[in-house]
Every structure is written in structure tokens, then in C-alpha cells.
Design a protein that fits this description.
single chain, 0% strand, 14 helices
Length: 267
């Protein structure tokens, strides 16, 4: 069953009268049944097939794949690269992996990479990102989702984004300013550590932002509210300017600026 699922996921399964062509309704039911059977085995050997195909059948599969932590990331990257129809499910599975705790929790570096991947998908897959934000309690995405809701002409996208903002805002209100600040810094480290961030104007912006984030954190921990607010205001201004200069994307700039302003309002 595990081998068959992986063959179906890679288009190498044997064709028979009992297995209809991809896209046929009966084929979808067959994949759901096959995935369900494989899930009952709880066998790590099924990870690739579940990541490439199974995660499209349900939340329980996404959570199971995410539970493998770093081991799931290469196969999720493969699914993203090879199967465009799997990308919304990959995004939600990334969110589950980012929220993972315990022995299989992602390293700081891996989690930052996952967060950056989710943010980069917000323009193309807004519904999936809204769902992922709720699944992973990604409160730092609130300004990005609010912006999507305010500017899209698609009522479904707007509704999903607004609902996520409402739920996440309640969660955010219960977090300390320092916890919110540290989580924001994780997102910044994620997209500032990606390709294209090591040189040019983007590199300079990222270096400056990281320095200011370190400075602001010192002030917050020491209880120096005035200096902390001043640095956070400078971070907000720099993020906004960086978007105009092309050093940050619109989503990156909005995430930094709005979260810096929100943390300052909570001090």
C-alpha cells in the first residue's frame, strides 16, 4: 500500500480498470481510501507518498506529515516543486510543522525557513495562507491577512482572511509584548536569510533591521519603554522605506512595520 501510494503520487502506478484516470471522481475516492489505509499503518516509510499526494486528502494527514519535523521538509519541498495542485496543502502542513513542539520540533533555522516560505506564498495562495495561519496560530501574519482582506475583490478570499484575522487577534491579545516581538524577529530572520538577501540593498536593509531588532529587544527586557518605542518606530519607518526602495516585498514590509507598531502599543 505504501509503495502504491508513492507510485500514484509520482505517476508511476500501474493502470487498471479499477483505477480511473486522474481527475475522475472515482479516482479521488480511490486516493482517499488508499491514503486512509496507509495512515492506519503509521509507518514512517509512507512519508514521501503522504507528502506528495496524501496531504491533499485531509488535515489529519497534514498533521501526521508535519509531526516528522525536519524529516518532512525535503519531501514537502519536492511536493511544492512537482505538484502545483498540492501547494495549498503544503502551506498548511508547513504551518503545522512550524507549530510543532517536543523532540521533533523544528530547529530555529528550519522554522525560519518555513515561515519565510509561508509568507512568500501569501500573494499567490491567500486562502491557503489564511488557513495555515489559523492552523499554526501564526499571529504575526495578521497585518498581511488584513491587507489581503481589504484589497481583494474576491469575496471568498476576503471572508477567509477576515475570519483568520478575527481568530488570530484574540490569540495575539493574550501574548506578551516580548513574545510577539521575538516571533516577529523569527519571521524577519526567515526572509532575510533567503536567496538574494546576502548582497545589495536588501542585504543592507536586513543587517540594519537585525541590529535594530537586537537593540529593541534589549530595551524591552530591561523595561526601558521610551527607548524601546523609539527603536520600534525606527524599525517601522525603515521597513516602510525599504518597500519603496525595492529592498523588501510589500508583504515583508507590512509584516515588520505593523508588528513593530503593535508591539510598541503594548509596552
Amino acid at each position: 500500500m505504501i509503495a502504491l501510494l508513492e507510485q500514484e503520487a509520482t505517476g508511476q502506478a500501474p493502470v487498471s480498470a479499477d483505477t480511473a484516470a486522474d481527475g475522475d471522481e472515482t479516482y479521488g475516492e480511490y486516493v482517499i481510501d488508499l491514503t486512509s489505509g496507509v495512515m492506519r499503518l503509521q509507518d514512517p516509510a509512507a512519508l514521501r507518498g503522504l507528502a506528495l499526494l496524501g496531504i491533499q486528502t485531509g488535515r489529519d494527514v497534514q498533521q501526521y506529515v508535519a509531526s516528522f519535523g525536519a524529516r518532512s521538509l525535503p519531501v514537502l519541498a519536492e511536493a511544492w516543486r512537482l505538484k502545483a495542485d498540492a501547494r495549498p496543502s503544503v502551506i498548511t502542513t508547513w504551518a503545522f510543522s512550524a507549530a510543532l513542539t517536543g523532540p521533533n520540533a523544528l530547529s530555529k533555522e528550519d522554522r525560519q525557513q518555513v515561515l519565510a516560505s509561508i509568507l512568500s506564498a501569501s500573494d499567490t495562495y491567500p486562502i491557503a495562507v489564511a488557513s495555515a495561519a489559523r492552523s499554526g496560530s501564526l499571529v504575526i501574519l495578521i497585518p498581511v491577512l488584513a491587507n489581503i482582506a481589504a484589497h481583494t475583490t474576491d469575496e471568498v478570499i476576503s471572508s477567509r482572511a477576515e475570519k483568520a484575522v478575527t481568530i488570530l487577534s484574540t490569540q495575539r491579545a493574550g501574548m506578551s509584548p516580548l513574545a510577539l516581538f521575538d516571533e516577529t524577529a523569527q519571521w524577519v530572520a526567515g526572509f532575510c536569510g533567503g536567496p538574494g538577501s546576502a548582497t545589495g540593498i536588501r542585504n543592507g536593509t536586513c543587517v540594519s533591521l537585525r541590529n535594530r531588532l537586537d537593540n529593541a529587544r534589549e530595551h524591552i527586557i530591561a523595561g526601558r519603554v521610551g527607548p524601546a518605542v523609539n527603536v520600534l518606530t525606527a524599525i517601522e519607518r525603515e521597513a516602510t522605506d525599504a518597500r519603496l526602495k525595492g529592498a523588501l516585498t510589500a508583504a515583508e514590509s507590512l509584516l515588520i512595520a505593523d508588528n513593530a507598531r503593535y508591539v510598541a502599543s503594548r509596552l
